[in-house]
Amino acid sequence: MTNTRRTIMLASAGILAAPAIARAQAITMRFSHTDSGTGSRQAAAERFSTRLRDLTGGRINVQVFHSGQLANDPRAIEQLQLGGIDFTVSAPGSYAPHHRPLNLTALPFLVDTYEQGWALYDESRWIAAQFAQLPARGLRMIATWEAGFRSFTTRAPLNSPADARGLRMRVFPNDMIRWIMEAIGFNPVVLPVTEVYLAIQQGTVIGQENPIDTIHALRFYEVAPHITMTQHVYSPLPLAMAERSWQRLNAADREHVMTAAREAAAFSRNAVREAEAGQLREMESRGARINRPAIGPFRDAVQSVYTRAREAYGAEVDTLLAEAETIRRARA
Description:
Elements: H1 3-12, H2 18-25, E1 27-32, H3 40-55, E2 60-65, H4 73-82, E3 87-89, H5 114-123, H6 125-131, E4 139-145, E5 149-154, E6 168-171, H7 175-184, E7 187-190, H8 196-202, E8 207-211, H9 212-217, E9 226-234, E10 237-242, H10 243-248, H11 251-285, E11 289-291, H12 296-301, H13 303-313, H14 316-330
Helix pairs in contact: 3-11, 7-13
C-alpha cells in the first residue's frame, strides 16, 4: 500500500494524527509597519501576533516586520490590496488615496484628549461608514491602535505661525495635512517617513510633524530638537487587514483575528497615552527643547482649512465636525 493511499484511508477513518492536521492548516501571515523595533507599534504588533497564535493553538503565525523593512506606509497599503502582506497600521489619512473622504479624519483640532479621540473612532457613524467601504478596495479595518496627537519637531524654534513662513516642512501625502501646513505658513514637502531623518539632517526640510510616540521612536528630535506641542491633528492608527487574507479565513479564525486586534488596540491606546510624558522627559534629557506655545494663533491660522475642506468635500465636513463637537462636550 502506498503512503498516500494509507494517509487517505486513515483520514477517512478519522484516525489521522492531530499534529499532521495542525500542520496542514497552519497559516503564516505578514505584518508590516514603519515604526522602530522598540516603538509602541512593534510592541502592539507582537502582542497581536502572540495572542492570535494562542487563540488558534499555534495555527496562525504572524511575522512582524518593523522599520519599513517590507515597505513604506503607502506601499504597504498597496501591498495589502495585492495580498503581498496581510496587516499594516498607519495614520487614517494614509488610506485616503484609496478612499478620498478619509482625508477629513485629519481636520485640525477635531478632539482635545485621548479619551475624546478614542470615542470618535469607536462611536462616529461617519467614520464607520467610510471604513465599511474599504473592503471593496481590498482593505478591511479591524481595530484602531494609537499614535497620538501630531506636533512639530523643527531645527529652529517655532513659537507662532509667523516663524513658519516659507520654511520647508515634511508632510506625508495627505491633502488635509498639506492644507494645514500651508495655512500655518509652511512650504510642505512630501517624503516617506523612512527618509525624513536624513532629509532634516541634510537640510532638505527644516522639520516634520508627527505624534510624540513616533518622534521618540524614530529619533527625529536628534536632528530637529525643537519640539512644539501644537497637537494640531489627532492621528491614531487604524489596523488594516488585506481583504484577500480575510476572505481566506473561516468564521472562527476571523473572530480570533478580531479578538486579538481589539486586545492589542486596548494595549496600544493605554501604552501610548501613559508613555508620552516620559518620552518627552527622555528627549529633553538628550537635548530636545519642549515648547508649549499659545495655541490660539495656530487655531486661527487653520480656519481656512475648514472652508477649503467644505469646498472639496461638501456636507461631509460638517457631519464629522458635528460628531466631534458632540464627543468633545460629552467628555470635556
